[in-house]
Amino acid sequence: MLKTGKVLLAIAASFSLVLSGCGFQANSGSSTKLSDKQVLRIAEEGGITTLDTVKANDAITFNVLNNVNEGLMRLGREKQPEYGIAYEYEISPDKTKYTFKLREDAKWSDGEPVTAHDFEYAWKRVLNPQSDSGYAYVFFPIKNAKQYNQGQVDASAVGIKAVDDHTLEVQLEKPTLNFIQRTTMIAFMPQRKDVVEKFGDKYGTSAEETIYNGPFKVVSWTPQKVLLEKNENYWDKNGVKLETVEINVVKDLATGINLYNSGQIDTATLNQAFVDAFKNTEEYVEAERARNYYILFNHDDPFFKNEKIRKAINLAIDRGTIANDIMKGGSKPADALIPSSISGVGGKNFRELSGSYVKTDVARAQALFQEGLRELGMSEPPKDIVMVSYDATPLRDVAINIKEQLRKKLNLEIKLDSPTWKTHVNKVKNGNFDMAMLGWVADYNDPFNFFEIWESDNEMNFSHYKNPKFDQLMDQARQTSDPKAQFELLKQAEAVLSGVDDQGSAGFVPLIYYSKAFVQKSYVKDLYRHPFGPEYSLKWAYIVEKKEE
Q1: Does residue 429 have a pLDDT over 80?
Q2: CA nearest neighbour of 524 among 285, 288, 256
Q3: pLDDT band at residue 425, thresholds of 50, 70 and 90?
Q4: Element containing residue 181 per DSSP (H, E)
């Protein structure tokens, strides 16, 4: 992750070693004695944009906020929600009311208590239409949340209520199986009303004009560096070993690698050009992110309204080349919507249970393409199709590869438009594209996170994909509180959206399931990086004494 910040993420992600998909303690071969200097130095490409959890919408900002703030629940080391500011919760028999009990020792960085009122205030601030938060929709399972966001009811009608300082009551419209997963998101973190009102429009624009309730606090923030220090008022401060975290803001990944090689930082993301150089070293780690890259069709364009044209493009593209030769770092060819890092049922992931819906078949692609052209009354494809892609490697190289594949296999000539990130986002949001390359990363461990943006009435449905069968299956999946029944409905929905057979609509072109590679010094331990939501948690990380050379 407007969710666009992260959506059109065409864009950013990361991880750590236990390689179950959760986190890892990078590398063996070092001492286990704690270093006297508990300082972790990392690099991030691009700076943070705000410290206001209501307005945050990009990956790097989420990473910082995840470590300086804490919600009712947080994403734990085993990629499952665990207690944060809440120490327990109860669910009503009809599964529509959640009652959270908050820790009495939870405090803000200025020593004031964290209360249920801070959660009620923050959540309703996200929903306030004046906030224009891109994450308001994730609160819509809550009673009257959508109506308040759309100006139909007053805030007092929303099912979020601080019963007392340490009890928060949340009333849902109907049972929502993934509600606890949602509460790990940045948008669900608390805010202090008096502090937000004190700083007004300046809230979250500097380290001093913000307040924190997580393991760390921001002590300085410049375009070049974000400095975090341990928050001595954090309720679990004894479990936090790091004293300082230096986040070096680099202009590109190559700069981060240079800093790593010169010993100025302890971990760095690898770009594709450096993967092969580090791949066989003990400091190399790759890990899957709950993220996919894909091509959007503009479904308002008559050419792409033709289902056979869309299916032909899907079948023509060799995703193995894109994943293995261009993206590298463990990325895999995508054959549907949901990455394997997203859970299914019965202890298995969604992908292995659901199967494959797209495989390369050039002969069939060519036949379907010609059938589609005939249905459109065309003897050859149009020459003015433009695909918008982000102007950065390796995505620029992916776009070039796709252009060449479609030219050779389908005689489809497309033009590439590779603007800056901001322009790219605006073009896609405003529908100014024929085809567009995008990335999407899950906010929490649930396939709904990927499905929702394809519904006809979703504001994130930039391609204007409309399929009544898909919408119906999504509605049915929301209505059930049986995980197995819900999975079966979502499996059918994925077949409709992704499939190229008679039942599928090929609503988009899946390209890859993304993994990120990086290097990390062996003396860095328990730096857990997550498959979804914010990329890493620093709470458990620590530094051991460096091994003698």
Answers
A1: yes
A2: 285
A3: confident
A4: helix 179-182
d(CA 196, CA 202): 9
Contact 507, 259 (CB under 8 A): no
Mean local confidence (pLDDT), 165-190: 96
Q: What is the mean pLDDT of residues 258-280?
A: 91
Using alpha carbons only, give the angle 177, 181, 182 rounded to the nearest 5 degrees.
100
Q: d(Cα 101, Cα 90) in Å, to the nearest integer?
A: 9
Q: How many CA atoms lie within 13 A of 351 on its CB side?
A: 17
Task: Give CA torsion, residues 366, 510, 178, 121, to 10 deg.
Answer: -130
Structure tokens at 233: 């008022």
CB 530 within 8 A of CB 22: yes
Tokens found for residue 124: 């309703």
* CA 55/CA 101 separation, integer angstroms: 26
Give the separation between CA 14 and CA 329, rounded to whole angstroms.
11
The string of DSSP letters for 395-456 reads: HHHHHHHHHHHHHHHH---EEEE---HHHHHHHHHTT--SEEEEEEE-SSSSTHHHHGGGST
pLDDT at position 272, please? 83
> In sequence order, which residues have a C-beta less than 8 Å from that of residue 431 and are 6 or more positions away?
298, 300, 462, 464
Write down the number of H helices and E strands in the chain.
18, 21
Residue 97 to residue 228: CA distance in whole angstroms: 37
Identity of the amino acid at 360? T
Torsion sign, CA atoms 478, 483, 487, 489: negative
